[in-house]
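Quick one, probably user error.
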C-alpha cells in the first residue's frame, strides 16, 4: 500500500495517447509513483472505452490517487467521475477542449464526438478537489468556455497565459508547474482530512 503522503499519480492523456516529448510523459518519468492510462488498440474515439481504461488503472491502485489529465484526458476524467465513486485526492485538469464547438482540422468533429458518447460535456460538480489550468490562446477552447467548465466542476481556475494547448506543438515538453499542482492537490486533501 502507498504512503498516504505519496499518492499514485494517474496520468490521463488525450486522444493522441502517449506522446514522447509531452509534459505528462516527462512528469511520469520524474515522479516516483505514477501510472499512465495505456493507449487503446480499438475504439480509440469511444468515450466508454476511454473511461473504462481509466477505471481499470484506478481499480488496480490500493492507495491514494491524484489524477493528472490533459486535453481530452480531462473529458475522460469528468465522464469517469460521473459514474464511479472511488475517492480521489484531487485532479489537475489541464487545457480541457471545448468538444461542443468545432475543433480545428485534424481533430474530431462534433458529430463524431456526439456519436461516440462525448457530448454533452458533463457539468456536474466533481466529487474531488480539482485545478483547471487554462490557456488564453488555446486553439481547442476559448478561455471563457474553460472558465465556465471550471466553475461548474467546482475547480480552481488557474490562468497560465498564452501557452497554446500546453503540448509539444506549443513548446511544452517540460512543464514544471505540473509538479507544483500535484503537490498542492495532495496537501489540499491532507489539510481537509485534519
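Nope, works fine. Designed sequence:
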Amino acid at each position: 500500500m502507498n504512503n498516504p503522503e505519496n499518492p499514485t499519480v494517474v496520468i490521463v492523456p488525450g486522444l493522441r495517447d502517449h506522446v514522447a516529448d509531452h509534459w505528462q510523459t516527462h512528469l511520469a518519468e520524474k515522479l516516483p509513483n505514477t501510472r499512465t492510462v495505456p493507449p487503446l488498440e480499438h475504439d480509440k474515439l469511444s468515450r466508454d472505452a476511454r473511461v473504462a481504461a481509466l477505471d481499470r488503472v484506478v481499480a488496480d491502485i490500493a492507495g491514494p490517487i491524484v489524477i493528472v489529465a490533459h486535453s481530452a484526458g480531462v473529458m475522460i476524467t469528468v465522464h469517469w467521475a460521473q459514474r464511479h465513486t472511488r475517492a480521489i485526492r484531487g485532479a489537475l485538469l489541464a487545457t480541457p477542449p471545448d468538444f461542443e464547438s468545432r475543433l480545428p482540422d485534424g481533430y474530431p468533429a462534433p458529430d463524431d464526438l456526439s456519436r461516440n458518447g462525448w457530448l454533452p460535456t458533463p457539468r456536474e460538480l466533481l466529487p474531488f478537489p480539482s485545478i483547471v489550468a487554462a490557456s488564453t490562446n488555446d486553439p481547442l477552447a476559448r478561455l471563457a468556455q474553460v472558465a465556465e467548465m471550471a466553475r461548474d466542476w467546482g475547480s480552481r481556475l488557474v490562468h497560465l497565459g498564452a501557452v497554446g494547448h500546453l503540448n509539444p506543438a506549443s513548446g511544452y515538453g517540460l512543464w514544471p508547474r505540473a509538479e507544483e499542482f500535484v503537490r498542492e492537490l495532495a496537501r489540499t486533501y491532507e489539510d481537509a482530512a485534519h
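The chain has a mean pLDDT of 91.
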